[in-house]
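User: Predict the structure for this protein chain, please.
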Amino acid sequence: MAMMVPESVLAGGVIWYMTRMADSGLEIATLSGGTYKLESGALQALRASFRGPILTAGDAGYDETRAVWNAMADRKPAMIARCTGTADARSIVRLCRDHQLLNSVRGGSHNVAGTGVCERGVMIDMSLMKGVFVDPVARTVRAQAGCVLGDVDRDTQVHGLAAVLGYVSATGIAGLTTGGGFGYLTRKHGWTCDNVVGFEVVTAAGEVVHASKNDHHELFWCLRGGSGNFGIVTAIEYELYPVGPEIVGGLIAWPYDRARDVLGFLREFTRTSPRELAIMTIARCAPPAPFIPKELHGKPIIAVSACYCGDPAEGERVVAPLKAFGRPAADVIVRRPYAQMQSIFDAGAPKGKRNYWKSENLPDLSPGACEVMATQLDTMPSPTSLMFFFHVAGALNDLPADHSPAGNRDAKFVCNIASMWDRAEDDRANIAWARDTWEKLKPHTTGGVYVNFLADDDGADRVASAYGSNHERLTALKHKYDPHGLFRHCKALPA
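Assistant: Here is the predicted structure, written as structure tokens:
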């Protein structure tokens, strides 16, 4: 018996007719908790009309593609649609819309909550979309949603330019940016989303629109921090800034018993440091890196990652007090390529570990917050866990709270408690350590949180904390742009 194919499985104006086949087809979870059966013929037609691969369990590449950075997110989607362009993304969104299918969106797959992969739903994989197009005259770059930070840095640095991105080169740009984003250039230029010129996005209605301050400006506001709630971003255009190719940056470290002294120094040092200087303070066990003395390998240390993104000669002058403080055990703050600095933490964030994070924003580097960092490693069950204080004070504080949903304009530091381990049987102890550290830190925070650092079990109250005074407006716009909650496999707003 002939059957009509929904518009969502058509491409290029070609209409597909097919015969329903006798076998079982593909069962896909729906948003309501039920199951939709995509018949074999319809699946074959989708594969024929979709330019990228459509993968199901047992297909070559299925397990590799569904595996995201956090090994705790071990989910098995019914289907993986690997988009190669905007037309593919629109087609699969329309399929999900027509049948109210559970879906998730995978970009760089680096999100700690593992939101890029869903159980029994449709995983919309953007990672094949890697185009980067730099306009050195206008100082902008247009990058497709499958790009990671390293892809963008590689092409922009050819022109001595850089976008405001994050710290790990394997992080996806789309998730980073729609969640707010911050990195080495944030003190100078604000959240990543503050530096977006425009988005190309597929909406819940299955339409492709360009959102900027002049077009679909309300949607543009939503996308600058509203996470994955408002559509599938297929490309982002960023403003670029002169950076590098050589900067002053690297790591400096002291034994952990010096933590209180180092943190006290940093409290004063960061109050007057120029916005060109980004400081990240790290408490962790020393890795077996060649620049760290062997006697410290595997032992707790307090370390600082510093990056000065201005004139290198001035950068050397600015970091001199840091390098001179307290006889550090290791110091590799030198002139180096900016792209190298952007990947210096890649080895410390490997794919395939089990990860659980807790995070808070800080109004300052208070003595109480410093004491938490100076003591909590003594109870840490995993030698690969870390605690970070990211210094972000600067340009983001100059803008009003409602400039973007990312908000948190009162933050001067972002704290991330990153528990990382290998074995499932150690889950309870490592999650408990992160939560205990978080509870001790909370009295010293603003109450705000960076949405991209929320864990899988952080619920609606923590999402509200991420958006603060913008939460009510953002929720109302969620109802407008996605009234049926098609995009909910993220840190979702009420639909």
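Confidence is low (pLDDT under 50) at residues 1-22.
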